[in-house]
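Hey, can you fold this one?
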Amino acid sequence: MKKFVAEFLGTLCLVFIGCGTACTVGCDPAAGSGYILTAFAFGLTVMAMAYAIGGVSGCHVNPAVSFAMFLSGKLEIGEFVLYVIAQVLGAVAGAALMLPIWGAGSGLGTNGLFNDNVALSLLIEAILTFVFIFVIIQVTSKVENSAIAGLIIGLTLVLVHIIGIGLTGTSVNPARSLGPAIFVGGAALANVWVFIVGPLIGAAVAAICGKFFAE
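Sure. Predicted structure:
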């Protein structure tokens, strides 16, 4: 039970702080500062959670990460399902906490299609998620990296957000996309499947590559 509560709380914090920062400072690439602050908000939150709950649940806070761990044989199917449920509930709770502060009209940090192109958006999300999760798999595969794993993973999330925010808003996390989209509705909810499927594809490729390099 502690694992699932940890995943719930970690994902809640990620959505509230990451998406909340996006609502507060904006994510217009032309503005610059808000864009970078949002990227760091997501990365620093994952970094903080990694050290806070990593020893409890592994700090996946992301169904795509859990999917990759399941494919890598590090999670049983039942545990994987419960992780995802906890993450989605955490994301919904985080988005719900955002409502009285920023309101659904702010967009709540939802994702959007790149140039209204589904195929390119799927590709972008798959690539960004692959980079993020491949780093996670490789860094956590060695015990000697345990002290710095949270730092590296957090900074990698900053990295993919820096390039991705101006393209799709950067999901790389189905729960993070679904939670806010439920409350915003409209195009955000209609297109949320792209930000579920794309990250899962990237996660699967990362898991395959992780197994290849482990052999």
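The mean pLDDT is 95. Let me know if you want another pass with a different chain boundary.
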